[in-house]
Amino acid sequence: MSQILEITLENFDSMIMAASKERPVVLHFFSSRYPECATFGALLEKEASLLDFTLGTVNLDVPENNQFIQVFRVQSLPDVRIISGGQIIDAISGIMPEDKLRARLEKHFLSDEKRYLMNVESLIEQKFWDEALPQIESVLKEKPGNKPYLLLKAKALLGQGQVALAKEILESFIASDDEYTSARSYLSLIDFHVEVAKTEIHGEEAQIYHEACLLAVQSEYKKSLQRFLDLVQLNKDWNNGAASKAMLTLFGVLGPKHELTWVFRSKLNTILFI
Predict the structure, then answer these.
(1) Could you tell me which of 137, 210, 196, 208 has the C-alpha nearest to residue 163?
(2) Which residues contact 237 (CB under 8 A, 6 or more apart)?
(3) Residue 27: what are its φ and ψ, rounded to 5°?
(4) CA distance 77 to 56
(5) DSSP state of 16
(6) How many CA atoms lie within 13 A of 164 on its CB side?
(7) What is the pLDDT of residue 1?
(8) pLDDT digits over 181-238, tens only?
(9) Spatial separation of the C-alpha atoms in residues 10 and 152, rounded to whole Å
(10) Domain boundaries defined on the chain
């Protein structure tokens, strides 16, 4: 469990050095004289929560803490040291973008299992279904009930067009599962496959809807959302608001924090409510 600790000379050995023998810890030197320290500190706290590590903060505004400057040879702020087994294994001097900071920290705090999962997720995101499935199956062979991997398997099967098999997996999730909401969204995505299978399309609205569904099935989510939005602008009430409902389905597939969700939800709300 992540912790954020105020470190002083008195508690340094017990809270940092001792803890580092079990797992790497992060030490952040900061001062209110450098405003960027506050911003960077907030990023470190966020990463501590996500990656589950102990973050020790050393306030160099406190005179008693100035000895740390000599001990750690701090030359600029913010300054970060990663300590493992009582030794410094990495150092970050100055600020860096959030994505680069996370990549730097992940080298020290991600488990092999998490790295494997992220690799499979990356393959799915890149639409490498055939490469992802054997890796997914190797995990499910050992842990048949692994929910995250079952969801990934359903995504890969959908990508391959194996709708029936994907549907069977998605329907196995129950409300208490962490993946339940995502599974329900992907079940709704199956309706797009049904639409794509149609051979007779009549009317401008129906044609746009069909194109948008085809793009969604191909995982071209940005293009799909734009076509659904085009339909909302053209006729938001067509087929009982099918286009806006479809956009909500894709928001569920992408997740609430995805950039496309933020951008297109705002655009949709502007059309519907303003």
Answers:
(1) 196
(2) none
(3) -115, 125
(4) 15
(5) I
(6) 0
(7) 63
(8) 999 989 988 989 989 989 899 999 999 999 999 999 998 999 999 999 999 999 999 9
(9) 48
(10) 3-109, 112-172, 192-273
Residue 272, CA distances (Å) to 70, 231, 269 in order: 61, 12, 5
H helices of the chain, in order, are 12, 18-20, 36-51, 67-72, 98-109, 112-125, 129-142, 147-160, 163-170, 180-196, 204-217, 221-235, 242-254, 259-273
Task: Out of 3.30.70, 3.40.50, 1.10.260, 1.25.40, select the CATH number for domain 112-172.
Answer: 1.25.40
pLDDT digits 0-9 by tens, 85-144: 999 999 999 999 998 999 899 889 887 788 889 889 989 989 999 999 999 999 999 999
* pTM, rounded to two decimals: 0.63
Fold held by 3-109: Glutaredoxin (3.40.30)
